Amino acid sequence: MSELVKKPVKITETVLRDSHQSLIATRMPTEYMLPIIEKMDQVGYNSVECWGGATFDASLRFLKEDPWDRLRKLRDGFKNTKLQMLFRGQNILGYRPYADDVVETFVQKSVANGIDIIRIFDCLNDLRNLQATVNATNKIKATEGRGHAQIALSYTLGDAYTLEYWTDMAKKIEEMGADSICIKDMAGLLVPYKAAELISAMKESTKLPIQLHTHYTSGVASMTYLKAVEAGVDVIDTAISPFALGTSQPATEVMVETFRGTEYDTGLDQNLLAEIADYFRPYRDECLENGLLNPKVMGVDIKTLLYQVPGGMLSNMVSQLKEQNAEDKYYDVLKEIPEVRKDLGEPPLVTPSSQIVGTQAVFNVLMGERYKMATKETKAVLRGEYGQTVKPMSQEVIDKVIPGEERITCRYADLLENEMEKLESEMAQWKQQDEDVLSYALFPQVAVDFFKYRQAQQEKVDMTKADTANGAYPV
Q1: Residues 6+ apart with CB under 8 A from 316
Q2: Fewest beta carbons less than 10 Å away: which of 4, 149, 170, 350?
């Protein structure tokens, strides 16, 4: 019998970012993370995803923590493991496109404070919105030897998204100077045999390593990983079991066990993983008890596959209909979603395009006339502010919603002037570190509230006596 040719699959652990973002709305505080870092650092993960996404906003807004401080503490603890973040291209971690100087400064500071791998995505898969981030990362890599730019393609279904589309994108990503590719399946739409087909085709068209990220929402994720690994995927994203499954990722220990003794054996130590799981289990129980973890998000939502709509988008839609006492219109809106998506050029449904399409579909149904009222975001998509879509947008809808307006065909950020200086002068009174300017750039109001809180803590102000309603803090 011939010797096994070893092709160990690598693992990125998501418990410190996407896993708790998906299950408990990104509410895990830094103090829960720090005691287990030393153990996690011994595992031999490909990377630990621990920053970016919604962690930045949630830290400032809900946890009253400085996200930069979290990153520095994690970097301090992880001596041997690469740290990874999620970055929304030109939108960085916010919800509007920023000028290139803000993008570049953010990348510099992320790497300087401890990030190794930056996973960059765009809600339309418009690669022009990712180039500035890749360039900024490569610039640091050239001078300091640190930094890895990974471009994530938002996986979606539709006429335009053929195998040829994905393989062409892979070639373009390689030409852009990225270090690796991630297939980001945010809604759990990638089914096992399609995954095998996709990975095989992409492997033939690029030499770059390929990583696969999915969610358990639709119930197929572990099988999808199995077929993808057999087809040659290099890295998979998993979550330690107490924070796995449901809207999170497949469980780390299960995938490690699946490949044990095969050519894909990860080589990770189950005893060590069991200790990490033991550490997180009481916190999971606490979240179940206090309602932060809703058992509803732990099940399988097969509607995701039936309607190709991410779970978060469905729940958003249901609450919008509830507010309008129009829950009986649920199926009408579900039918309208693919129509709106088609009108807007068939974009992937991921933040923020999923919210834009979903809200517009609700309006179209409730108004009884399509596009009688369009949201400002829908108008921005039609104008081309978010970038170029795979298919052309409906001319009829353009004429109805933004008649006679000029449309943008260039990269939107080319129209933006540098803004770092202006931002810095606006928030100068709060600045204690360079990174504060970036926190302010992304979330101006939330950041200022946090700066006020931080100052009160530093000056040992009794917050119970502060007049928070009027924003007055007795010193």
Answers
A1: 355, 358, 359
A2: 4
